[in-house]
Amino acid sequence: MKKKNRYFVLFIFVLTASLCFGQQGLAESDAQPVERSSRSSINVGVLMGGGGLIGADLEFLVGKRVGLQVGGGLGSAGFGVNYHLQPNNIRSSFLSVQYWHQGFGNNFYASYVGPMFVFRARRILQIGIGFGTVISTGPGWERAWEGRNAPGNILLLYNIGVYFPL
Q: What phi and psi, each to the nearest 5 degrees, are found at residue 146?
């Protein structure tokens, strides 16, 4: 083989190798960073933690889609069983069966149980809406509705707040 042909073959080899390795470097630099998969979160907001004016909930996944939630707020407590729409993703929206207990002792208002849909944005925002059946009422309910017609046994449940995956 002539000397010129050797240099030409060597040049083609180096050029091909550099193009191949150059593409590999681009693919690695364009890759999206992988977020750590959280299995629990803290939710804070209005009418969270069992329907308190300000409340907080702790949620943790116990399966691929099922989560348990427990919380409390200013004069309230509650818990829920959640079914996430995406598996192994605490950031996903979910369907929930909730129990809310508003007030304690002489200030006990009412307890509710019912379904909710909770929308979770990709980052931080959470909004829930559903309905609850009144399962018990207390002195606070009687004072609030004294002399007026009390609402029916089914009421609107809603909340809004922020969530922080742990």
A: -60, 125
- Which pLDDT score, from 0 to 100, does residue 165 have? 96
Enter the DSSP assignment of 145. T
- For the chain, the distance separating the N- and C-terminal CA atoms, rounded to the nearest angstrom, is 66
Looking at residue 20, the DSSP 8-state letter turns out to be: H
For residue 28, pLDDT over 50 is answered with no
User: Which secondary structure element, helix H or strand E, spans residue 107, and what is its range?
Assistant: none
93 Cβ contact list (under 8 Å, min separation 6): 84, 85, 117, 118, 119, 120
- For the stretch 77-111, what's the b/e string if a residue is b when 16 or more beta carbons lie within 10 angstroms of its beta carbon? bbbbebebeeeebbbbbbebebbbbbbeeeebbbb
CB-based burial label for 14 (10 Å; 0-12, 13-18, 19+): exposed
pLDDT, averaged across the chain: 86
Contact by Cβ (8 Å): 96, 83: yes
Token pair belonging to 47: 């009418």
